[in-house]
Amino acid sequence: MKTFVAVLGLASMVTLAACDSKQENKVENAYENKADALDNQADNMEAMADNLTGNAEAAAENAADSLENKADATREEGDKAEDAVEKKQ
């Protein structure tokens, strides 16, 4: 699922990049990079959870879910920031 969302997001970025200004792209890239880093942390946390059991596994899965939610929120913030830059132009 994550791979599909990432591919879909990448395709959307490529499509939008053709009509975005340099400033919009800079803002979008900054937020996207931050969100990608959070997704990577979540992936690492999930991999670690696979080696745990019981409450420790559940805690690690919850932490991974939290990181994924932060990544999603960061992408939404990036979209809003990009829209704000676009409106100024």
Automatic annotation (TrEMBL):
Residues 1-17 form the signal peptide. Keywords: Signal. The keyword Signal applies. Residues 67-89 have a biased composition (Basic and acidic residues). Residues 58-89 are annotated as: Disordered. The keyword Signal applies. This is Lipoprotein. The lineage of its organism: Bacteria, Pseudomonadati, Pseudomonadota, Alphaproteobacteria, Sphingomonadales.
